[in-house]
Amino acid sequence: MSILEEAANEAAATVGAQEGAHNVMGRTQWQLTWGRLRSDKVSMIALVVVILMIIIALAAPAFAAVTGHPVDAAYPDTGENAFGNPVAPGVNGFILGTDSAGRDLLVRIVYGARISLFVGIVTTAIALVLGVAVGLIAGYFGGIVDTVLARFTDAVLAFPYVLLALALATVFGPSLLLIMILITFFSWAGIARIVRGQTLSLKEKEYIEAARSLGAGPFRIMFYDILPNLLAPVLVVGTLYIPNAVVFESTLSYLGLGIQPPTPSWGNMLSDASNFYQVAWWYVFFPALFLLITTLAFNLLGDGIRDAMDPRTERLIAARRMRKRSLRRKNAGTPPATVQLQQPGN
Amino acid sequence: MAIVGYLIRRILSGLVVVWLVATASFFLFFARPVETVARQLAGRAATPQVINEVIQNLGLNQPILTQYWHFLDNLLHGNLGFSYYTGQTVDQVLKADLPPTISLVIGATILWLVFGLGVGIISATRARSLFDRVASVGVLIGLSLPVFVTGELLILFIFQPLYSHGFHWINTGYVGITSGIVPFVGHMILPWITLATVQAAVYTRLSRGQLLETLGEDYIRTARSKGLSERRILYRHAVRAALTPVVSQLGVDVGTLLGGAVVVETVFGLGGVGQVALEAVDQDNLPVIIGTVIIAAVFVVFANIVVDLVYAALDPRVRIT
Fold first, then answer.
1. Backbone angles phi, psi at B121, to 5 degrees
2. B256 and A CB contact within 8 Å
């Protein structure tokens, strides 16, 4: 969690710094951020992967239509070999092979993407709203309100979520709604902690005092004056929480506490696949690969946005260019004396 | 003497947390009607008399407060209730499954701290070197891999090929340390790596960031200008200060570690408390699950007290009061 906090701190620190440059550059903070993000190849690849993944998830029925294999249709004749085991990728028109029931693995994975992304994005959105509200209130009012909320947040953060999921799934039975509630419950606390920290420092700023002396009420100050300044860290944290939620959902489904078969989810597919790793490597490999690509892309994008919001990044990029140039000169036999004089970062 | 008072206060507040968790868990028993629970336990073909008997035997017909009192009373005597199925006491059930869980958690923690802090420190001292770049890619992959995916991939790409070629040292399942250290390590190595991966990634990142920040502080420059050796500056001055936030993060991560242990035990079929709890879900064996939750809460509280003490020992600015 504290990595996220660090990220948020950095992102927030830049908001103020960039406002100074605002008029000179004639560009808004978001334009600057986007400009830096666009020059970072890794982030752009991550963004493209994220968008592709969303398109794939939305187009899941199209995959079923094109392959002619509905998501729940089993093909005992073509989709299983003589021993009743899954068939390999490419065999009998199954592009990524089949699963243990002779269903098209590609179509199942694509439908699994729907669950993962849906759970990831929706729970993160709800957790952001909750976390921002709690963090703002705790940070702004302080005192006993803060103490109670902060203690509660700490308790939630320290609780072993898998165990609570176990207990609740036993009592209420596993369902999509239950795991979404669980994920939200365990996500808002970290966000609240970050927002609280930011609010604590923002509320001491002069413009808040100005707003108060103009007669603004606490809620107006919180939501009109403080909240807009929190958008940058919240955006970064949001991007980094989505992969967390995706991992969370797949873990619970893997343990049989989340999405129940035959509804495909990457987690429950891997759980089933673990019985077949000796005969069908693809059944383990492809769901795992999609899961890894998705979480990796979101993590890289989150890191990229954080860096892009940081004006120090500009200097880093400049320094890197400088170093490359000096290397080239070294290789060409030119003494790098002039480069030494120019301190990278100025 | 201050430390005794501090310890007493911490233990008391820890007990309050455990009590809260226990009470919340207790009310989970009543989230479903008693009849339903009894019917499930008695089996499909149960007559109303049998169901009544089950209710009587389990004491489910007494007023809630009486049951709550019994529950707390038992808890204070270290009795977590009886498994609905085998009739064994829950602590007996869990005690039998502790060795795999403890071996897993301790081994993984050592691996994770050694790798996480080690790689973090090396990366920070050689920022932007090849090692640092490779490490940061590794960290991102580690962060993005769910525990069970790491486990499944290790089985698929390490255990399975080795095993089918007659190399049986690395294995799944649990073998006690009593049957020799070599087979024990062979069985535990993949689970340890699996559980340590995600955490090591988090700590590499954290310790690298903290150390880089600390190395930029003025007092490090002072130490350098005094002519101290780089090694002494790094280990006596920088690492000690940089590690304090890392240690406080440890307290938060104990819970995550226990959750991860449940998953790893399931992936590698180690048995253990987590896997037993997971099986109890299938059987609707609520006392076993609640026992696990309470034990986990005690463990988390205890670990947090230890972490706070270590924190105070590391950071001279923190006073125990």
1. -65, -45
2. yes
- Nearest-Cα distance to chain B for A86, in Å, is 16
Name the residue ranges covered by the structural domains of chain A.
32-310
Q: Which tokens go with B109?
A: 């923690």
For residue B117, what are the domain limits? Answer: 97-276
Q: Which of A166, A274, A298 to mutate to test the interface with B (most CBs of B within 10 A)?
A: A166
Positions of chain B with pLDDT lower than 50, given as ranges: none
More confident residue, B1 or A154: A154
Q: What letter represents residue B74's amino acid?
A: N
Residue A343 — very low, low, confident or very high, per pLDDT cuts 50/70/90? Answer: very low
CATH number of the domain where residue B217 is located: 1.10.3720.10
* Chain A contact set for B273 (CB, 8 A): none
**CATH topology (fold) of A32-310:** MetI-like fold (1.10.3720)
**Whether pLDDT at A341 is above 50:** no
Predicted confidence band of residue A346 (pLDDT cuts 50, 70, 90): very low
pLDDT digits (tens, 9 = 90+) for A116-153: 999 999 999 999 999 999 999 988 888 888 888 877 77
Which chain B residues have a beta carbon less than 8 Å from that of A267?
148
Helix axes A143-158, B239-268, angle to 10 degrees: 50
Number of domains in chain B: 1
Q: Which of residues 174-233 of B touch A (CB under 8 A)?
A: 202, 205-206, 209
- 3-state class of B89 per DSSP? strand
Q: What is the pTM of this model?
A: 0.80
User: Does the distance separating the beta carbons of A6 and B148 come in below 8 Å?
Assistant: no
Interface predicted TM-score of the whole assembly (ipTM), two decimals: 0.80
Q: Which of B250, B281, B288 to substitute to test the interface with A, most A CBs within 10 Å? A: B281
pLDDT band at A58 (very low <50, low <70, confident <90, very high): very high
Tens-digit pLDDT profile for residues A308-327: 877 665 655 666 666 666 76
Residue B286 belongs to some domain of the structure: no
